[in-house]
Write a structure and sequence with these properties.
This protein is an alpha/beta fold and 105 residues long. The chain has a single domain, classed as Response regulator (Rossmann fold, 3-Layer(aba) Sandwich), CATH 3.40.50.2300. It has 5 helices and 4 strands, in the order βαβαβααβα. The chain has a 4-stranded parallel β-sheet with strand order 2-1-3-4. The radius of gyration is 12 Å and the shape is globular. Pfam families: LMWPc.
Length: 105
Amino acid sequence: MNLLFVCSRNQWRSPTAEAIFRNHPVHEARSAGTEPSARIRISARLLTWADLVFVMEKRHKQRLTQRFPDEMAGKSVIVLDIPDEYGFMDEELIDSIKTAVAPYL
């Protein structure tokens, strides 16, 4: 299953999630951001690739739905409710991501 993790700037939260699941034996993971300044910007191609989309906040889901209505139609999007208050690979962030994602895998 292809997992896509989305946050705003693709600097801390979504790259951490991608790193956690990068070497998973069953799933493939990628990450992107919704902002123009994102390290890797969200695209229609990434959304088409993804089987499951995990967003860090409700506003990320809203942005995806507005910008990519065709690609988002029927797409499973899970809001993780993880605030932007962590650094890359922060232990608490890792625990939060693993706990929030586990029920869907």
